[in-house]
Amino acid sequence: MLHTRAWGTPKRRARRPLGPVRTFLVTTAAALAVTATAVPATAAPDEMEPKPASSAWGRDGEPEAPPVRAGENRPPKSARSAKPTEEERAWAKAQETRRSGGQDIQNSEVAPLRWVPEGQGEVPWHEISDLRLTDSLVARINYSNGNLMLAATDFDIAGVGQNLQLTRTYNSFGPPYGQLPYRWWAGYERRLDEFTNTMVVYDDTAGTIRFDENDDGTFTTPDGHSLDFRKNSDGTHTLTDRKSGSKDHYGGHRGPGHGVRLRRRRPRHRGDHPRGTESVLHLR
Q1: What confidence tens digit (pLDDT) does each residue in 81-129 have?
Q2: Could you tell me if residue 68 is inside a domain?
Q3: Helix boundaries (H) for the chain
Q4: How far apart are CA 68 and CA 247, in angstroms?
Q5: Would residue 12 count as lying in a domain?
Q6: What spans are recorded as compositionally biased (Basic residues) (predicted)?
Q7: 212 exposed, middle or buried (CB, 10 Å; 0-12, 13-18, 19+)?
Q8: Could you report the per-residue pLDDT of 206-225, keeping only the tens digit for each?
Q9: Which domain holds residue 141?
Q10: How many domains does the chain have?
């Protein structure tokens, strides 16, 4: 076998291959040195610094549930609700008269704004927590004012264009009187009350939305809402949702027991024309 040697060294000092014994000793010493270096890192796994977790609970960890304390729950003492004011009693009486058809809404005069219900329905800037009770009933608690809502879905039929739904909302805060028993408000109901320099709209959850009239005849959008309200040249009113683009058209007849015409610019029902169509909801 031909062996190489370093340049400039005589042939007698040429490098020779290591023998099998020396090769084994060198290999064993190198292995022991590497093992001795790695033993301190693997011998004590508890002393290793944990890697940063991917979440607050650790990698694939389960959150620890706090212990449940044993004891009895004591409900708070009940308190009687405050007696309604004179304005509230007058408003409630007018609501009952209106619902029973005892007053002609079309020929009634515009009255000054005295009292309207506030805080009921879905208020956009309030904090609301939902708790599903059944597959058709959801409890909604308004943490901002304490109103309790029950959102019920009586039926939901899937359609080609839009689902056919019948929903209703219960408000512990006194809502306006509608077609259902008091405190319940159907999802298809809308109402417009006209007062001096103010228009009050009740949405699908019986929420109160006020539009104050400006000197030029336009209406100011209340804070927290993305709605535009305007009066048309024929005396009707149009409410436009900026987000969805839907338009609610209120004719000369206002209040429950009268038709509310809903105009939508985008096709939302089977058979709608792309340029928009009108459908009338008869609330009698």
Answers
A1: 788 888 888 877 777 776 655 554 455 555 566 778 899 999 999 999 9
A2: no
A3: 20-43, 86-99
A4: 51
A5: no
A6: 260-272
A7: middle
A8: 999 999 999 998 999 999 99
A9: 110-281
A10: 1
